[in-house]
């Protein structure tokens, strides 16, 4: 899952970013509306956590521009204003959900997962292919009933491969969806992560290298 945190309270923004990264999400962060617009023009995000009162470019304008875009990115608007009129106005701008500060991190995560499901074609809550099962909400994965102890990045890569439903996924696509904007496109981190994931999944192999195309999960 690719997430952008656009929040001018730096301590809050950095805390939320680290928390979501710990859960295996690829998270970028910025602190003003100008930077938020730059990032949404360059990257495709599943969810944007958008502070309504951003400096430089107001969060309302950022929200409106996102809503006019590809139609796939979901916006969770964050604000200190708790009035009904504020929530109605925010949703009217194109926000998909609204969360009032201060908020519980667990609730934020639940809302991000719910919005991400709406950003993609409908899939079952538990992904299952070739004996591999993954529950994104519960952060649980198994193979043939055997629980897997995966790092956040291994979990993220496995989720991308399962969501591809047998389609080959390129290293570039894995890098885009499972890492943040600071990932080096020339690094071998994708290959190393796939290698360690294969070891944890065990024999017989279910992640196959497709020459010139990337990696495919299946029998």
UniProtKB/TrEMBL annotation:
Residues 2-116 form the Response regulatory domain. The keyword Mitochondrion does not apply. Residues 124-219 bind DNA. The modification 4-aspartylphosphate is found at residue 51. InterPro entries: CheY-like_superfamily (IPR011006), OmpR/PhoB-type_DNA-bd (IPR001867), Sig_transdc_resp-reg_receiver (IPR001789), WalR-like (IPR039420), WH-like_DNA-bd_sf (IPR036388). PROSITE patterns: OMPR_PHOB, RESPONSE_REGULATORY. One of its GO terms (molecular function) is DNA binding. SMART domains: REC, Trans_reg_C. The keyword Protein transport does not apply. Keywords: DNA-binding, Phosphoprotein. Coiled coil: none annotated. It comes from the Bacteria. Residues 124-219 form the OmpR/PhoB-type domain. This is DNA-binding response regulator.
């Amino acid at each position: 899952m690719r997430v952008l945190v656009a929040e001018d309270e730096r301590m809050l923004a950095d805390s939320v970013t680290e928390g979501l990264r710990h859960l295996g999400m690829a998270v970028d962060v910025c602190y003003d509306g100008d930077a938020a617009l730059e990032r949404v023009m360059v990257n495709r995000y599943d969810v944007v956590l958008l502070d309504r009162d951003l400096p430089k470019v107001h969060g309302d304008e950022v929200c409106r521009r996102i809503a006019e875009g590809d139609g796939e990115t979901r916006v969770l608007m964050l604000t200190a204003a708790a009035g009904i009129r504020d929530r109605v106005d925010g949703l009217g701008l194109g926000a998909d959900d609204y969360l009032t500060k201060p908020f519980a991190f667990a609730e934020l995560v639940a809302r991000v997962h719910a919005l991400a499901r709406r950003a993609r074609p409908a899939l079952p809550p538990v992904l299952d292919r070739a004996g591999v099962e993954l529950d994104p909400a519960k952060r649980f994965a198994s193979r043939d009933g055997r629980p897997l102890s995966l790092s956040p990045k291994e979990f993220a890569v496995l989720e991308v491969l399962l969501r591809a439903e047998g389609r080959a996924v390129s290293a570039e696509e894995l890098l885009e969806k499972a890492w943040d904007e600071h990932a080096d496109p020339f690094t071998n981190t994708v290959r190393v992560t796939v290698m360690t994931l294969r070891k944890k999944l065990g024999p017989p192999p279910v992640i196959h290298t497709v020459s010139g195309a990337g990696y495919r999960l299946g029998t």
